[in-house]
Amino acid sequence: MTIAELMAIPHLGLQLIAGAAGAGNVVRWTHTSELEDPGPWFEGGELLIVNGFGIPQTPNRQIEYLQRLAEHRLAGIVVSVRAPILTDELLRAANQASFPILRIPRQVPFIELSYIVANANERASRDRLARHVGIYDTLRLRNTAENNVKEMYKQLERVSGYRLALVTPAKSPLLTDWPWVPSDFELDLSDELQVVHGGYVVPLFVGHRVTAYLVAQEHADSVPEGLTVLQHISTVAALDAVDVQRRREAEHRQNSTTLSSALEQSESPELLEARFINAGIPPEQGFRLLAIESRSNNDDFEIALRDWLADRARSHLMTSQGALIAVVACGDNVISQLACDTGAKIGVSAMSTDVRGMTRLHRQALWALTLANKETNNCAVFAEDHHTLAPWLNPDQGQIETLSVDTLRPVLEYDEAEGTELLHTLRLFFHNQGQLRATAAQLYIHEHTLRYRLKRIGQLTGRDIKSYRDAFELWLAVENFSSTPL
Question: Could you give the residue range(s) of every CATH 3.40.1390.20 domain in the chain?
Fold first, then answer.
């Protein structure tokens, strides 16, 4: 039954006072509510009947009231003569939205209108029940050997009257066999039902987490069946979301084993390369190792990181070894976005093509993570952005010793030319944990003299001893310099 057909029933005496363009709206049911925001209780197609206690008094709030009803796709609203004055602004807004507002006479009880709608829709209610049964009948397609996902969702579209999409939080298709994703909608990453322009977005839960969304869009070729039908469909769709999570978990465990073997170098390089390729990371194309801060709820955090990468089809390996360790093959901007979206602090190694160098990459990433942890914002720190320290994170002892000599060469040459003891002073300074008084006492010099020597060392090496990063590099150089121990 439509609004126009209700108005044609003489004894109801309904008067259309605004929104005439919506007279063809189909009335699926009636509902009474005096709430100022009754929208969340509707599924679409209802005719709201009110005395008007919930209708605000001011024009702006009346318009907001009407907009909320229109957003939830009500067929219209019937107000009694007890309602507050409906402002001209409200009536204009109703006309613009093609949202019918009707006046019901005092002598007509609300229940009379409800009975008429219910009787008229009795057959439609039986049809709706049949459609609901048809939704669950599609499960047989899911449980066949072919598991015909495409045919199942086509059938669900025919039953519901909506164009359906299953999307990840990244707005990518959840299922490869059902890849359609609407291009003209904004996805709010919420755990509540969303009413959007032309349809609905229903969150799909796996456990306590929203892992995907069912998007339903109205289209001109069919009549949408409303929210109740979509909620039934979401129950079916949630089974697919569970299957995706199970598949990801199996891949995650396998990839974790691969990464652990690579870090421990417990397998041949040839076998590791094959396993990297099987995981979607061909070593010759380059990869990075990430060290990610641990969390108290590390399991949930690890799953969140995994899903973020999987939702964007980013190949990765991940395991937990104190910090979360991951190998990724993606652009630097993706890594930075991962840190931003998940709230993580990430240390990033240099790019590599050699699975035999995982120890070096691991050391670089952990060091970069210490720098990231000093930042106030969630961020990713790339090791190569800090050139002065990155070369030290190398397991080649010969290269480390050469680097130590090169770093301390100006000090060594100055000591030899001037007969000073700057290198010995620096070694004692680090040995005493940077304590000026203790170092000066061991050297039998005044603290002012010690400060002068340290300043001179900084001038010669181009490094500021007061900078944690520069001091760390000098300490590494001193520790690895082959000389007589203290």
Answer: 3-120
